[in-house]
Amino acid sequence: MNYKFKEDPIFVNGKISLDYYKKVIRDTKFLTPKEKNLLIRLQKGDEIKYSDFPYLLYKVRYEIAQSEMMDSQIDELEALILKEFIKEDHHHFGVINVI
Any idea what DSSP says for residue 98? Predict the structure, then answer.
């Protein structure tokens, strides 16, 4: 199926209405409920420039990841990171080569 944006009255000047944007976001199966809520809450105007969607999704996913990291105890996070680095320290020198 080939969708032509310019032929659809929903799309005007590279923008879509807020109502249509919300419908698309809510109906997609490729986003988590948390991502959907944040994407919708970020919108302040009545129209959304649909070419901005990749940036908005990146921003939302970054915010979620940052929030989840802050929920973790720093000691747990440090232990997790150290455990991953130790896997790469094949000679047990306490040093990892970055190539």
Answer: -
- Higher-confidence position of 10 and 91: 91
**C-beta separation of 19 from 26 below 8 A:** no
Find residue 48's DSSP bridge partners.
16
Cα–Cα distance for residue pair 25/60, rounded to 1 Å: 13
Other Cβ atoms less than 10 A from the Cβ of 6: the count is: 7
d(CA 88, CA 51): 40
Cα(9)–Cα(31) distance, rounded to whole angstroms? Answer: 25
Say if CB 22 and CB 40 are below 8 A apart.
yes
CA angle 3, 62, 89 (to 5 degrees): 120
Amino acid at position 8, single letter = D
pTM: 0.59
Rounded to the nearest 10 degrees, the angle between the axes of helix 33-41 and helix 18-27 is 170
Instruction: Kindly report, residue by residue over 79-94, the tens digit of the pLDDT.
Output: 888 888 888 887 778 7
